[in-house]
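for the recovery benchmark. tokens below, seq after
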């Protein structure tokens, strides 16, 4: 009960406020997302790196864990996709949902509330490693190798996260940190990243649900077209009975059309793989890579977080079955309400 009242409920309350903020207040999250990405998150990472005595070897060990975990989840999703007879895009969408972990908006607040400042610092280090993999491998998965390696690598340098990592460590190492008033300002910005991240999570979930409903209603009310078969095998036809090329090209693959039955099954499977598979694989990896107790608990929690909302951004951009990814996000996020509480209780929080 203590876990529920002290950790889970406060997080869900702020997420619900974000949901209401967009639904009732009509506040769009695009500006807030940019503030989070380009200001608050780099400030949090900078303060974590500047205030941490951890050597780069520790960051390397965490990165190795995240890398192995991502590979195992990717291979599992590909295998499950083949067993479910999904096509290449569906298998990649399942892999995208399994690899992208919500270690930032969700994981950081949980670790901070559960383990204090020490947990916050370790969670921020996990986010650094996770972001590097998602910004590169995530593009490869979503685009099916259509991007060149250098283009994928360049994505890391288009956001200030990598610079916050390097500057925070270098300035701390050579005792060249800014004066105390400036450090306090950066610290205030960084701590703002946690509540804003939860608000954004609620706003993004409301957007997904609203777009799903609106597009589903629009498709259902459309005239002059025979919709695709529910299993995705058929294609829409225009008013003359001829195949509709737009419908044929998407075949249940547009961002927010009414989902096929197979998408519901595959999306639910991918979402549960992210939580259950993440936990199981993390426990296996931790038998071979040792960490101190608090960091070990943080890694278990972060590895078991639900699918990140930005997975659907990649899926939409590269037309990688975004509806399937959306279902995975919803499934994993809802399931995490129980899984996070059980994990914290099991970890002795």
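predicted aa per position
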């Amino acid at each position: 009960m203590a876990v529920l009242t002290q950790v889970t409920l406060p997080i869900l309350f702020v997420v619900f406020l974000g949901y209401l903020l967009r639904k009732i207040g009509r506040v769009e999250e695009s500006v807030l997302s940019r503030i989070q990405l380009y200001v608050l998150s780099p400030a949090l990472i900078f303060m974590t790196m500047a205030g941490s005595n951890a050597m780069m070897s520790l960051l390397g060990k965490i990165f190795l864990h995240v890398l192995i975990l991502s590979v195992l989840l990717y291979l599992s999703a590909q295998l499950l996709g083949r067993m479910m007879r999904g096509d290449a895009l569906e298998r990649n969408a399942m892999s995208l949902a399994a690899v992208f972990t919500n270690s930032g908006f969700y994981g950081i607040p949980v670790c901070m509330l559960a383990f204090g400042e020490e947990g916050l610092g370790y969670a921020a280090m996990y986010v650094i490693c996770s972001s590097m993999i998602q910004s590169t491998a995530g593009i490869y998965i979503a685009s099916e190798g259509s991007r060149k390696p250098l283009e994928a690598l360049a994505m890391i340098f288009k956001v200030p996260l990598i610079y916050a990592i390097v500057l925070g460590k270098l300035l701390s190492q050579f005792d060249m940190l800014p004066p105390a008033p400036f450090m306090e300002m950066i610290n205030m910005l960084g701590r703002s990243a946690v509540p804003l991240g939860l608000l954004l999570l609620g706003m993004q979930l409301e957007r997904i649900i609203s777009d799903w409903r609106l597009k589903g209603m629009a498709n259902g009310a459309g005239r002059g077209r025979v919709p695709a078969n529910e299993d995705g095998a058929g294609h829409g036809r225009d008013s003359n009975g001829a195949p509709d090329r737009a419908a044929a090209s998407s075949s249940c693959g547009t961002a927010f059309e009414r989902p096929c039955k197979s998408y519901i099954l595959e999306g639910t499977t991918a979402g549960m793989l992210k939580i259950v598979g993440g936990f199981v694989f993390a426990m296996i990896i931790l038998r071979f890579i040792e960490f101190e107790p608090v960091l070990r608990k943080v890694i278990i929690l972060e590895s078991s977080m639900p699918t990140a909302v930005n997975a659907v951004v990649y899926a939409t951009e590269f037309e990688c079955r975004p509806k399937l990814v959306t279902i995975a996000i919803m499934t994993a996020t809802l399931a995490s309400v129980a899984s996070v509480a059980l994990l914290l209780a099991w970890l002795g929080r």
